[in-house]
Design a protein that fits this description.
By secondary structure, the protein is α/β, with parallel strands linked by helices. It has a domain of about 150 residues: Rossmann fold (3-Layer(aba) Sandwich). It contains six helices and eight strands; from the N terminus they run E-E-E-H-E-H-E-H-H-H-E-H-E-E. A six-stranded mixed sheet has the order 5-4-6-1-7-8. It has a two-stranded antiparallel ribbon with strand order 2-3. Helix 2 links the parallel strand 4 and strand 5. The longest helix has 18 residues.
């Protein structure tokens, strides 16, 4: 009677290759796009206001940027498109709407932070002129040092609520939301648990990729501007 032969060891044939990231089943992929460059503020005048917030249209270069980001995203599989209550997001989304036929939906909670006494273009003027409150705002990473501005916690909570509403409405789907710089900073700060994103400088018409499932927010890309030209200019 022959003795049983030991099983052959085939571990040398096993390989574990690196795998590309695959979003969890049922997760929502959200592409946050900052609106294109808006019209310049001018001393002595204020932008038109919508519910108390400045509502400038896009500048000519903003329309150019909108066409570029629209062309970049037109070939992506997109299930839904969101904009805010302010016209610069609608104008930025227009080329993508024309290319895809998507019907934009308005998510009011993703409108820009309310800047109180610095609304209507005054914010830009005070920052450019080095106003002491502007310096304090940068140092403390808070909007609400501006007189009458929206409290920081309230702003972050409504941005999170707006994004989670989109997540709940689009499980397993890819969504584009054209929003604002402050909204992107709040969303990325929530995803990373870091409070230093407030002035990280999301470029106009940059793309930011979040993957959302249950209570988990994964930041997959920040400030993607490949469609706009060199990143470091």
């Amino acid at each position: 009677m022959n003795d049983p032969q030991p099983a052959q060891d085939h571990t040398d044939d096993v390989e574990y290759a690196q795998q590309r990231f695959s979003p969890p089943e049922g997760s929502t992929q959200l592409l946050l796009v900052r609106h294109g460059a808006s019209a310049a503020a001018r001393p002595g005048t204020i932008f038109p206001l919508v519910d108390g917030q400045g509502d400038p249209p896009l500048a000519p270069e903003g329309h150019d940027q909108a066409r570029l980001v629209g062309a970049r995203l037109a070939s992506e599989p997109i299930d839904a498109l969101y904009v805010t209550t302010l016209q610069r997001t609608h104008q930025t989304a227009a080329p993508l709407i024309e290319a895809t036929g998507l019907e934009p939906r308005v998510e009011p909670d993703l409108r820009e932070v309310y800047l109180g006494e610095w609304e209507g273009g005054r914010y830009r003027e005070h920052v450019a002129n080095g106003h002491p409150i502007a310096r304090e705002m940068f140092e403390k990473q808070r909007w609400d040092v501006i007189p009458g501005a929206e409290p920081d916690d309230d702003f972050r909570n409504r941005v999170v609520a707006g994004i989670e509403r989109i997540r709940d409405n689009h499980p397993g789907e890819r969504v584009v939301a054209v929003v604002h710089g402050g909204v992107i900073a709040a969303a990325v700060g929530h995803a990373t648990g870091v409070n230093g994103w407030m002035f990280a400088g999301a470029e106009n018409c940059s793309i930011h990729h979040l993957v959302l499932i249950d209570g988990v927010w994964m930041l997959r890309a920040f400030n993607d501007v490949a469609h706009l030209g060199p990143l470091l200019r």
